[in-house]
Amino acid sequence: MISRLNLNQERVLALAAVVQAAALVHQVASTGQADESASRCSLASLFVTNPDSSEDVFGGAEAINNLRLGLVTLKSIISQDQITGAQEITRYVLGLAHLQGKLRKRPEMLNDISKQLSHSQRQVDLYELVHPNVFASVAETYSSTLSSFHFRIQVTGNPTYLQQPMNTNRVRSYLLAGIRATTLWRQVGGRKWQLVLFKNSYQRELDALLSQLSH
């Protein structure tokens, strides 16, 4: 893949996408709402099948701005700012990394996910990206594949919101987007140990990406 970012910046961008998906899960679970721009970016990434670069997965030239929520949240977490939901978001990120590791060993499941997302793409073509039917279709993909693993990501929040079917579908869709981002993160050399050493390894690259955000 051709990228205008260096390899470490690609890793940070991909990790920010994982964090963004986790932050969206937390938003829906705790408030019943989600950042619309971040939601569109994360959901759209599921339907980018032949990207020329890491940025293309998240909107090409607009990738950094589209991942604003993930980049800002990642900065807050590694700076140990007391942001709301930091503990839950971090737990979701680690859970996504663990789940993606299991998925890598199941090529037939990866194939099933790809086929089902092709069906979801038809829903996008019929309606629009963030239509309830699209969320329902993507959520079904998550439920029929990744939910079969013994390990499950436990989503916590306000039961009033979590019990609403639309929110359940959104949470599962964001989790699948998180798996997509974790897959990309691994493809550009991301590893679990880097999560522990992230602050020392990639602080400069994160700051460089944050400086490119439009205000």
Provide structural commentary.
The protein is 70% helix and 0% strand. It has 215 residues and is mainly alpha-helical. The protein has a single domain, classed as YcfC-like (Orthogonal Bundle), CATH 1.10.3890.10. Helix 5 (68-78) runs antiparallel to helix 12. The two termini are 29 Å apart.
Mean pLDDT: 93
Number of helices: 12
Largest sheet: none
Low-confidence stretches: none
Give the overall shape, derived from the CA principal axes.
Answer: globular
**How do the SSEs run, as a string of H and E?**
HHHHHHHHHHHH
Helix content estimate: over 70%
Assembly state of the chains shown = single chain
* Annotated CATH homologous superfamily: HflD-like
- N-end to C-end Cα span: 29 Å
The structural class is mainly alpha
CATH topology: YcfC-like
The Cα radius of gyration reads: 16 Å
Counting structural domains, the number is 1
Query: Which CATH class?
Result: Mainly Alpha
Beta-strand percentage?
A: under 5%
SS elements, strand count? 0
> From the 3D coordinates, which CATH architecture would you assign?
Orthogonal Bundle
